[in-house]
Amino acid sequence: MTQREWQVLGLIYSGYSNEQIAGELEVAATTIKTHIRNLYQKLGVAHRQAAVQHAQKLLKMMGYGV
């Protein structure tokens, strides 16, 4: 995944909406939708909750208690 996709995943994990992510990263909401679509494909997930669960697994594997 790209650095930006990791940023987007982190913000999704933190509960941000697409619009909030766009504001935080100072990009258009359509750009965020593209990043999300790409990261879903790379993670092999189909929806936001599955992406959050995947992020939780990654954090746990890296030794962060979640």
Care to give the gist of this entry?
The protein is mainly alpha-helical and 66 residues long. 73% of the residues lie in helices and 0% in strands.
| CATH fold call | Arc Repressor Mutant, subunit A
Low-pLDDT runs: none
Instruction: Tell me the CATH superfamily.
Output: Winged helix-like DNA-binding domain superfamily/Winged helix DNA-binding domain
CATH class: Mainly Alpha
Strand percentage: under 5%
CATH arch. level architecture:
Orthogonal Bundle
What's the number of extended β-strand segments? 0
How many domains, as an integer? Answer: 1
- Element string (H = helix, E = strand): HHHH
Which secondary-structure class do the elements indicate? mainly alpha
Largest sheet, in brief, is: none
The helix fraction, in percent, is over 70%
Note the overall shape.
Answer: globular
**Separation, N- and C-terminal Cα atoms:** 22 Å
InterPro entries: Sig_transdc_resp-reg_C-effctor (IPR016032), Tscrpt_reg_LuxR_C (IPR000792), WH-like_DNA-bd_sf (IPR036388)
Keywords: DNA-binding, Transcription, Transcription regulation
Pfam families: GerE
GO molecular function: DNA binding
What are the key terms here?
globular, Sig_transdc_resp-reg_C-effctor, DNA binding, DNA-binding, HTH luxR-type domain-containing protein, transcription, 66 residues, mainly alpha
